[in-house]
Amino acid sequence: MLAPLQTGAARFSSYLLSRARKVLGSHLFSPCGVPEFCSISTRKLAAHGFGASMAAMVSFPPQRYHYFLVLDFEATCDKPQIHPQEIIEFPILKLNGRTMEIESTFHMYVQPVVHPQLTPFCTELTGIIQAMVDGQPSLQQVLERVDEWMAKEGLLDPNVKSIFVTCGDWDLKVMLPGQCQYLGLPVADYFKQWINLKKIISDEDLVSHLRVQLPGWEYGESRYYIDPRWRFSSRSCEEGNRELKAYSFAMGCWPKNGLLDMNKGLSLQHIGRPHSGIDDCKNIANIMKTLAYRGFIFKQTSKPF
């Protein structure tokens, strides 16, 4: 009895995929033959009775990387700012590029040495108290453990493509190389290329293709959506000024408040505490998963240095 049941299940699965393709029709491909995976296709599937999992399976494109390594440092800080800043929280989430699910976590606190005493401002901002960093490994020791973790997870295999993902360029362009230079430590090559989620979110193609919803811009009953092409189609000075301001906001300054605005723009619930390194990583991973299911393919944003 088992074999006929398995055959029937396989036949039913094949039927569903066939029906899904018929439902989507030409929506899956653009005139140039490039897949157009978008939320319109998902909505069309839902309208024909397909659940979210089926829609996601059909619309989820292959990524360029096997794994995304989501990273978000927290560092010593004060007002006015102290120098040099030192990393005190070092979290990494290993995100599967095919499923966009978290497969492994690296998370350590780091003992600061130049300014070993955390300021009240730093504790209030990050939630990290003195006891959490006292007696913890130095940055050099943590970097050694990162390398061990990378090897254990198969991320140093030349056949495995992985890339770090950050919210901004500060973590890997400023903070890590700056502290390593100060301490006379080498920076591993895998830290020298990354994806800046802020640049991804503010990308013109993403805004027009996925219709990212901006927080705080309401006109009448509906939200104001950005389409970069609108800047050429103004019918009045008032409309033109509004479009130009919105476009500039999207392409230049947005997301104004980082992860909080990204989550709001994508209608996602914020996870945990803002400025907790590990919680920020979870939010970045959730945003990436959301964008991937809407059809976005992530690519490197950093330039070689």
Rg calculated over all Cα atoms: 22 Å
Class per helix and strand makeup: alpha/beta
Residue stretches low in confidence (pLDDT < 50, at least 5 long) are 1-10, 12-17, 19-58, 211-237, 239-254
Shape: globular
**Percentage of helical residues?**
40-55%
Q: What's the multimeric state?
A: single chain
Order of helices and strands: HHHEEEEHHHEHEHHEEHHH
Largest sheet: 6 strands, mixed
Please state the average pLDDT score.
75
The N- to C-terminal Cα distance equals 62 Å
What percent strand?
5-15%
Describe the structure.
The chain has 305 residues and is an alpha/beta fold. It is 43% helix and 14% strand. It contains twelve helices and eight strands. Strands 1, 2, 3, 4, 5 and 6 form a six-stranded mixed sheet that branches. It has a two-stranded antiparallel ribbon with strand order 7-8. A hairpin with a 2-residue loop joins strand 7 and strand 8 (222-225). Helix 2 (39-47) runs antiparallel to helix 3. It starts with a helix and ends in a 12-residue tail after the last helix. 30% of the residues are buried. Mean pLDDT is 75; it is low at 1-10, 12-17, 19-58, 211-237 and 239-254.
